[in-house]
Amino acid sequence: xxxxxxxxxxxxxxxxxxKAVTVESCPMxxxxxxxxxxxxxxxxxxxxxxxxxxxxQHELQWxxxxxxxxxxxxxxxxxxxxxxxPVTREDNGAIFTCQLKSDASVNNSxxxxxxxxxxxxxxxxxxxxxxxxxxxxCNVLAxxxxxxxxxRDDELLDLTTGSYKTTNNGITAELTVPKIKRExxxxxxxxxxxxxxxxxxxxxxxxxxxxxxxxFPLGPTIAGVVVxxxxxxxxxxxxxxxxxxxxx
Length: 248
What we know:
Blueprint: E1 3-4, E2 14-18, E3 21-26, E4 33-37, E5 42-48, E6 60-64, E7 67-68, E8 79-84, E9 95-100, E10 107-115, E11 123-129, E12 134-139, E13 147-152, E14 155-156, E15 165-168, E16 172-177, H1 182-185, E17 187-195, E18 199-210, H2 218-247
Parallel strand pairs: 4-10, 11-18
Antiparallel strand pairs: 1-8, 2-3, 3-5, 5-8, 6-7, 6-9, 9-10, 12-16, 13-14, 13-17, 15-16, 17-18
């Protein structure tokens, strides 16, 4: 997100008043919210009320989520402009506040409502050993939120069988397959999102179930071998000492 000084794009503005500070926005705001989309430009302009005197009380400040924005000196007096360009996902919910430097209680704020789709539309290959658990994850973060459905080989999954578990916190949607079996679970899985704004989007997982590899605990195995070897050596030494004593 880049903030720069703007001196134009002030048409079709929405004006709201809080005491002696006015904030104008393009595109037009609905109340204190400006709706926009990723890669677009939002222009914010702050002006002071003409009834105030001409002293330095007219100096303005901008804050983004409470953090002071660095302004050039000529962009602080009477009238101050900002550009959010280009708008990014991280700007969603960002609150821009214009206030008098001499009196922070004289202020006005605008919040950005950035619409963006979920980051999907790709394919991932997943290899998993039989009887292991597998978790398939989709980034479903979007504004407005989307509806999520899971499919296998283009058919909706029956989530009532207990063979699958799903979670969705609005950011990540996950499908868990516990103790996967090749003949039951291998195939193409799809995480599909739908919304009135972005229609259908999806991510595909090609799940291949491989033979389970027997794994031996290397550490305990080595320790056991060492113990056996030491026992054998001690037994041989003891046997030799016993034979010497018998023949002495």
